[in-house]
Amino acid sequence: MTIAHAAIIGAGISGLTAALALARNGISSEIFEQAEALTEVGAGLQISPNASRCLAKVGVLARLEGQWREPKQVALASGLTLRELAHVPVGEARKRWGAPYGVLHRATLQSALRHAVAEEPLCTLHLGARIDKANQDNLAWQTAKQVDVIICADGVWSHSRRQIKGAPEAMFSGNLAWRFVLSSEDAPGFLKRDEVTAFMGPMAHLVAYPLRDVGGFNLVAIAAGASAGEAWHTEVDSSWKTALDRHFKGWVPELTRSFSAAKPTFWPLYEVGEGNWHNGRDTIAIGDAVHALMPFSAQGAAMAIEDGFELAAFLSSMPVPQAFDAFVAHRKPRLTALRKRTSFNKFAYHAAGPIRIGRDVVLKLRSADSLASELDWLYGYKAYGLDRI
Ligand SMILES: Cc1cc2nc3c(=O)[nH]c(=O)nc-3n(C[C@H](O)[C@H](O)[C@H](O)COP(=O)(O)OP(=O)(O)OC[C@H]3O[C@@H](n4cnc5c(N)ncnc54)[C@H](O)[C@@H]3O)c2cc1C
Q1: Ligand 1 centroid to residue 46 C-alpha, Å
Q2: Which helix (H) or strand (E) segment is 136 a member of?
Q3: Which residues, 6+ apart, have CB-to-CB distance to 228 below 8 Å?
Q4: CA of 8 to the centre of ligand 1 (A)
Q5: Is the CB of 46 under 6 A from ligand 1?
Q6: Substitution candidate for ligand 1 out of 17, 269, 288, 296 with most atoms within 8 A of CB
């Protein structure tokens, strides 16, 4: 017998997608979110076709298309000279991978998911509802119906995953991100409005892309550094400028000057390693709670969306313990392949010395089509359950 009602901890990207996908499969859910309101947490996100295909199925893509931008290409360029080295033609995503590639603010995606949830009678969202011990006893008095499964979707610092014996843990990756939105007036003229540009330099890189929904450009600077504790958007003090100047020394001054034009938020980057995703009975974790990755492939939100979508499809087609096992067996190989790709990207993006020179030569020789074909497995992916809804 399949389930009738689920409790979801966390109304982030994975939790809201899971609620909508469950509803599309006829299953009701209650979502418990610690925040009193879903405000503008985060910065820009790139949403690749593997994820936008799922968003289309749960009825959210049309809400985004009027607000996001579909870049012509993702370009790799030198942060020391601005010279383009290679590009992936993501503007052809609809044709090549069957769904669009878009860039937007995380708040726009979360708000579109939230509105779809509000319109869906099978979904109930409880705000200001922090759940730390996600077990049946703790949830029983808070839920309207008997809960068949508990889905822990509470992000990289998940507390609820502790209910799963042998669940993975978060580890500091040794890298820091500074994320900021730069107004169009403050943005250097060479930043292109129709592309995502990853500028690379020794031990650091900077990704820039336009945000149609909030105006201006999203900038993410990533470099090695010390941990700042468990927070996603720590406000930075004046020392941020000194740290950024140190990490981006030798870069084109017009790029680094733009650091002063906006106050960034500071993100220590954590990863979540191997471990159990479920307790074999009634509780499972998804999204960053079980596989947070470094953002070198820009796939964290995409994997959160795929997880929510696919878990709902498995839960609606087989009994719970079997659905949990089938979900994990289906997801883990994809996450392992993505982890490898992300480590490779980190090595390539932050290369220094002779390796950097070799990288640049190799990239200059790569055609746009050959780079795109390397991503077919990732972007062309058809999530389990797409044909069920
Ligand atoms: C610098 C950077 C750049 C990134 N760029 C990209 C990108 O371009 N593309 C991409 O796909 N991904 C990107 N990501 C990753 C992406 O943001 C995450 O992978 C994604 O948000 C994970 O979704 P989630 O639902 O698992 O967790 P979250 O979105 O973190 O949601 C967790 C939710 O749970 C709630 N919560 C936490 N604890 C509790 C509790 N005890 N009780 C109730 N609620 C709780 C939180 O308030 C939150 O709303 C980036 C990440 C970083 C750091």
Answers
A1: 13
A2: helix 136-140
A3: 176, 234, 266, 268
A4: 15
A5: yes
A6: 288
pLDDT digits (tens, 9 = 90+) for 16-46: 999 999 999 999 999 999 999 877 666 899 9
pLDDT tens digits, one per residue of 280-328: 999 999 999 999 999 999 999 999 999 999 999 999 999 999 999 999 9
| Stretch (H or E) spanning 179 | strand 170-182
- Please give the single-letter amino acid code of residue 135: N
In this prediction, residue 41 carries a pLDDT of 64
Question: Could you report how far apart the first and last alpha carbons of the chain are, in Å?
Answer: 19
Contact 17, 158 (CB under 8 A): no
Q: How far apart are CA 231 and CA 235, in angstroms?
A: 10
Whether the predicted model's global pTM rises above the 0.85 cut: yes
Compute CA distances 245 → 197, 234, 305, whole Å: 20, 19, 35
Cα(356) to centroid of ligand 1, in Å?
Answer: 32
How far apart (Å, rounded) are the C-alpha atoms in residues 315 and 321? 9
Pick the CATH number of 5-170+271-379 from 3.10.310.10, 1.10.287.3510, 3.50.50.60, 3.65.10.10: 3.50.50.60
Radius of gyration, CA atoms only, the chain: 21
Mutate to test the pocket of ligand 1, among 29, 30, 33, 41 (most ligand atoms within 8 A of CB): 33
- Of 159, 187, 98, nearest to 379 by C-alpha is 98
**Average pLDDT of the chain to the nearest whole number:** 92
Phi, psi of 303 (to 5 degrees): -70, -35
Cα 271 from Cα 268, distance rounded (Å): 10
| Minimum-distance ligand 1 atom for the alpha carbon of 293 | 19
